[in-house]
Amino acid sequence: MPQSWSDKRERQYEHIKDGAKKRGTGDKRAKEIAARTVNKNRAQSGESRTKSRSSTNDMSPQKRGGQRSHKGPGGPTKEQLYNEAKKKNIRGRSSMSKQELQKALGR
What we know:
This protein is mainly α. It contains 6 helices and no strands. It is globular.
């Protein structure tokens, strides 16, 4: 746990990590899930100096509640595909659907 976390964030980290372990997740993966969740919450509440746009614009991990989990080959979100297309400077990306973005990115 980074030292910059508050006591509240440390408790949150431990709670999420313990919950993931109870569900059968390995120790290393449970720590990763907990750290990512806490860091995303810190970014959304303005506690961190650096943050990504996808962290601040997306819904919180607690509210999402695993909506993107266990849906098979759903892959990345449209926003994630759009950001990748933006980095690769693909023209017409703003009017593309998720499927079109996947095709343009060669997925």
